[in-house]
Every structure is written in C-alpha cells, then in structure tokens.
Amino acid sequence: MELACIKTTDSKLPDGCTTVGYAVDSMKHLAPTSTGSIIRVTVELTDVDRNKLTYKIEAFEEAKLVGSAIHKRAVIMTG
C-alpha cells in the first residue's frame, strides 16, 4: 500500500526530490485474501500541506475491500 503512494506522486516531483513516509493511520485489515490472489490498490491524494502529503488507500481482491489506511508522506530534497 505504501509503494502505491510512492508510485502515485514521486514521479511527479521536481528533480532532486522524493518522499518519505512518516505515518500510517487507521489501517484496517477487513477480510482475508486467497493465496495467489491479485490485490488491486487504489490511492487518492487527499491533502497537501506544504511538503506533507496525505493519501487514502484501499486494497481490493476483485470487488471485495480487504484493507484500508490513511498514509502520510513528506517531500524532501535528496541531495
């Protein structure tokens, strides 16, 4: 789920910037998944406060919601 957030925004940042995670809130494991099943993760960027990004994440096995969380990342300079 965290990787999905990284892929959502890091490629859109200016050169020399990346994000680092600093919080995972309200994480819920809502249902079991089958071994070998394909899990689809959706990410919505819900808030930008200066360099802080907040995401709503949901994980699905087919149409079944199996997990959700709020994740927070900060944009930082890499060098």
Count of alpha and pi helical runs: 1
Strand content: over 45%
Radius of gyration: 14 Å
Poorly predicted ranges (pLDDT <50, ≥5 residues)?
none
Order of helices and strands: HEEEE
What is the second-level CATH architecture?
Answer: Roll
Strands, total number: 4
**Coarse morphology:** elongated
According to CATH, the fold-level topology is: Thiol Ester Dehydrase, Chain A
What is the SS-derived class? Answer: mainly beta
Helix content: 10-25%
The first-to-last residue Cα distance is 26 Å
The tally of structural domains comes to 1
- Major sheet: 4 strands, antiparallel
CATH class: Alpha Beta
* Overall pLDDT level: 95
CATH superfamily: Hotdog Thioesterase
Please describe what this structure looks like.
A four-stranded antiparallel β-sheet has the order 1-4-3-2, with helices on one face. It is built from one helix and four strands. Strand 3 and strand 4 form a beta hairpin. The model has no long low-confidence stretch (mean pLDDT 95). 10% of the residues are buried. The chain starts with a helix and ends with a strand. The chain has a single domain (2-77), classed as Roll (Thiol Ester Dehydrase, Chain A), CATH 3.10.129.10. It is elongated and about 40 Å long. The longest helix is centred in the first third of the chain and has 8 residues, at 2-9. It is mainly beta.
